[in-house]
Amino acid sequence: MRLLSAFKLVLLWIMLYATPVYAIDQPIVLVTDKDDVTYIDCDKEKLSEVTSKFSDVRDKAVNLAVSDCKARVNSTGDVKQIDEAKMLAERKFFTAFVKEQIKDDLGEFDGFNNFMTTWGDIIEKGDKATFLVNNVFGAGTLFELEPGNVPDDSNRVLIALKPENRCTAIEYDGAGFDSCAEVAGELQKAIEVASAFRLSEQLTLVETYYKQLNGQWQTFVDDARFQTTWDVLLTTWMYSDKWKAAELQGPPPIQYFVLHPTLTYSYMPDASRGEELKPVPAIEWFGMNWWRNKVPLGLSVTSVYNDRPDGKAFLHGLTLHVYNAYSFGMVGTGDERTFFVNLDLMNWFSDKQAKRDKYKNQFDEYRKNLEASFTF
Amino acid sequence: MAKDNLIILVHGMGTYEPGTITAEVKAGLVAALKFADHEFDYMENVEFHEHNYGIFLDDFRKAESEALAQFAELGINNSIIEQLGKYSENMGGDKFFYTHILDVIYYGLTLWGERLRVSFANELISKMKSAVLKGQRVHVLGYSLGTALINDTFSKIYRDGDTTDKFLSISDHKVDHYWSIANVSRILHELNDINGANPTNNVVHDGNGGCIKKMITVSHKFDPFTRIKTYSREPIRGRFQQPSGITQLNTHDLTGYLSDPDVGLKILYDLYGGTAGITEQMLVAGSKKYKQSTLNSQIDGLEEKWATVINSIDNPVGSVENILALIKASKEFNDRLAAFIPKNLGDNV
Q1: Residue A25 neighbours by CB distance under 10 Å
Q2: Closest CA relative to residue A160, chosen from A187, A134, A193
Q3: FRET pair for A358, CA 20 to 30 Å: which of A20, A90, A283, B113?
Q4: How confident is the model at residue A367 (pLDDT cuts 50, 70, 90)?
């Protein structure tokens, strides 16, 4: 265990404690969504899973994370004015403490001083620091400060931890290490946790946005009308700029349909006796569906194959789609006027097996009489 | 207590049951260790998480085929699936190619690609958030079509500067390691043409301005899927590896990739460094043993066969043609190899 000199300890104690303490009694609401409330309560227990063999360094880093969190956010969830002087003192205490604690074990490795100076400057400015444990086969372990954190990122700032036997000889507070990678990994966990609340807050904000976006897509998949690949290709094409955009997008507001086959149950009031009600196929030549309107509504230009002795073989008209589930329409004119609903809708009205069997039998009969030339 | 390394696995084309890609990765790493005659508990400090976007694609395929089956019974034949079915039959009726082509079409040419990217972004960020409070490092291993999903999603969610409510900062939220196996992101970029997602100059790299701390790209010399619009961007801190050993008919196989000690053992070293106990001697001996297990020397005129296949797909006209040429080339190369590879090894296609 490395001990600071008494003088330094007193100095650090003054820096740390001779400043006001921020007390927060209630959890802080960071993000409020109807179904999703995220609390940032600056509670150090949230970091209890972050363990390290550099345990005292880790503890101080956690304290800094908590202080930083409490200093920035007040109990109403608003960002408040930071007491810069107090936070600077805490950060300086932390960086000085870390350097003092690890220098006996790591100070002789190449790059240590430059690394600690650069990292210290970043932390003292109140910025975040992230690291890479870069294990390079044949070259050992490089504990690197991420370039994005470094003012001049053309230079890599790192501690070259090698050879392995120097790392395995380290004993920190009674704990040994089995490799340089472990030394670097444990140190990373110990000091990176100082930024954990900040990083977590940022990720919470982004997560909220993408959760909503993902929810929109899930609603589209669950609620919108079924589309064949051709429909999807057309809808994709209609919104082609949207998908090429440099940021992620929600689902299309309108669904498009082309050559969309459907099964309908048709009713021709003026047909021959016994021919009035018939299950027949239909095709939507082109259609649109405003699937996420308050009242989802769609319209399609439709042709119905008329398998009756009465009227023309193909009757043309329109289909209305409501609530992404109900479709009904009218084709033909005069005596040929035919009304229809789609079969899914028929199933909505009855879940009785007998009724479904009846439709099935009717379709089976229809299939037998289907003209061979009826293809799209 | 959480393990230090969380690896998000993103699979390739085709149907992946839960646990499949984890099993494939494990099998590859175990094989690599075995070649080096080395025992190491590589799961000791690693947790895998599968991002299974294939479930969505399977659902799309299933919904369409079920719906269209009804119409087919009525004699209505209007379906891209049927066209693809015919194409697949022409290529030997192999389901492998059928699902692969559809996956590429769905991802690269339709709005479902965006649905998959949003889902991946959502899951990734959620995992990153929980990891940061556990002190975990987040890595990604992407394979085949998964590399395109990763490339495009990262391009859309990472930005220079501070993190906002929509974008992750490349300074603060980098992915630790990205192992990119059989990277096909350039081909898919040809199809979806997403702004800022060109893999040759986008944010998905490990240099300045990149969103990866260390990127490792592995592209098998005889993998037909990596031969058109080959991904060849050199990592700054990572590696670009081109293994060439053929141990089975399917040179695009993930386990096959990782079994090569030069690939598998180095992944373990990336994660564990000296803790893995992997030495230079082990790597050399393992690689030698692996080489002895390959079939390269038994395949007469391998280079010529490969050149023939590559020449046949040298100048595809457009992006869709690229994909079809790719699939054809893969089939052709497989056929040519099949005659030389023992039957029990040729099953995994």
Answers
A1: 6
A2: A134
A3: A283
A4: low
For range A223-232, the mean pLDDT: 89
And the tokens for A140? 């050992």
| B19-34 pLDDT per residue, tens | 999 999 999 999 999 9
Are A50 and A148 within one domain?
Answer: yes
Closest Cα partner for B6 from B174, B122, B138?
Answer: B138
| Arithmetic mean of pLDDT, A9-15 | 42
Rounded to two decimals, the ipTM of the complex is: 0.87
Domains of chain B by residue range = 5-345
CA distance A341 to chain B (A): 17
- Burial of B214: CB neighbours in 10 Å, binned 0-12, 13-18, 19+: buried
Determine contact: A277 vs chain B, CB below 8 A: no
Considering only CB atoms, B64 lies closest to which of A153, A189, A229, namely: A229
Say if residue A172 is in the same domain as residue A251. no
Count of structural domains within chain A: 2
Domain range for residue A147?
6-201
Percentage of chain B surpassing pLDDT 70? Answer: 77
- State which H helix or E strand residue B35 sits in: helix B20-35
SS3 A136: strand
Contacts of A249 in chain B (CB under 8 A): 114, 118
- Based on the fold, state whether residues A157 and A263 are members of the same structural domain: no
Taking only the tens place, the pLDDT of each residue in A176-195 is 999 999 999 999 999 999 99
| Separation CA B96–CA A181 (nearest Å) | 41
Domain boundary among A180, A201, A222: A201
Asked whether residue A217 is domain-assigned, the answer is no
Helix (H) or strand (E) holding B5: strand B5-10
Nearest to A146 among B76, B171, B270 (CB): B171
Q: For residues A52 and A137, state if they share a domain.
A: yes
